[in-house]
């Protein structure tokens, strides 16, 4: 198993659970506090490609910022993709977490123990 990077918000209980599980399994990982070390649009594009998801799939639409931006009304199509990615880069709080990227080029949104184990098994 190679090295992983996990994007976390330390205040998020699911992030803390994921870290506990990684530690319990002796995983080799680096932590990225993405609210402080904000991902660029290109990094978000790369993670989306690894996840096989669209930007709206990893957007926390319940966040206050999402409501202010009116994200729920934004189109979810190829033409709007860049607008969504720009919003995630400008407002990293909107990014679903935690996201684990593995060095085999894959990634998972690790909100459950199963998803964390999925990342560990790659």
From TrEMBL:
Gene3D superfamilies according to UniProt: Glutaredoxin
Keywords: Oxidoreductase
A UniProt-annotated Pfam family: ArsC
Protein family: Belongs to the ArsC family.
Protein name: Arsenate reductase family protein
């Amino acid at each position: 198993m190679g090295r992983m990077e996990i994007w976390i918000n330390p205040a998020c209980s699911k992030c803390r659970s994921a870290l506990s599980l990684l530690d319990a399994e002796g995983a080799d990982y680096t932590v990225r506090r993405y609210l402080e070390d904000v991902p660029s649009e290109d990094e978000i594009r790369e993670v989306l490609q690894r996840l096989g998801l669209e930007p709206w799939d990893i957007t926390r639409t319940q966040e206050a910022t999402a409501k202010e931006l009116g994200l729920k009304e934004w189109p979810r199509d190829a033409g709007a993709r860049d607008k969504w990615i720009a919003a995630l880069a400008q407002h990293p709080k909107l990014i679903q977490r935690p996201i684990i990227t593995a060095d085999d080029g894959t990634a998972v949104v690790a909100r459950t123990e199963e998803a964390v184990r999925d990342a560990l098994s790659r």
